[in-house]
Structures are given as C-alpha cells and as structure tokens.
Write the structure tokens for this entry.
Amino acid sequence: MQTITIYSTPSCHYCNLAKDYFKSRNIQYTEYNVATDLERRSEMVEMTGQMGVPVIKIGDAVMVGFNQEAIANMIQSLPKEELVATVAAQMPILDTVDTASQKVEAKATGMVEQTEDGIMGTIKGGIKKLFS
C-alpha cells in the first residue's frame, strides 16, 4: 500500500512545490491529477469537502496545501510499521532495516542508531531533520 498520496493539478504552484519536496528527498508517492481524473476528484472532494489542491494524504492523515513541518509531523504520526517501511524504503541514508525478525535495526549516517527497541527510539527524533 502506498503511504503518501498527492491530489494535484498541473498548473498548481503549491502542488509542484510539494512534488518537488518529495522528489528531492527520494520519497515515493502516488499522484492523481484531479484536473483530468474525475473519479479521483470526487474522492478528494468527499475526503476534504472542497476543491483546493494540493491535498496530501499520508497514512490516514490529510492536509490541504503544502507545509513542510506539517508533512514531517504527519510522517512521524504513522503507525510504527508504516513509519519504518516509509523511511526504510524511501530514505537513501538507511543501510539496513530487518523487519522479518520483529527486531528493527537501522544504521544511518549520524541520524539513526541501532537500539534494543529498534528504529523507533531514535528515528522519531530525526524525522524532522530528514524531512526539513
């Protein structure tokens, strides 16, 4: 399941800023062009009650507009499994993440240390640094 979704239009400046923000950080996302995709436009309106873009959905959290700090907070609020999967799959500074053993171990250049509790003990504090 894709954790991050952006509902946008091609001519929207803030939509392009949001997409550039994610691309510059190697964060994968699903994009829906609501100017041409009527089904996704209806989905967006049902979700937010309005037509403004960008609409960014991270996990179950939804925001209208583009705000880097809010995005970092939304990513931090993901359930542990989604947070680990999102960061591990999309942040190139991570060397290894082993979720099969139920013990998550991560190594990164100064941002994440290996802990007995796994990645969560240190990565939550570093998420804002990674995404700012």
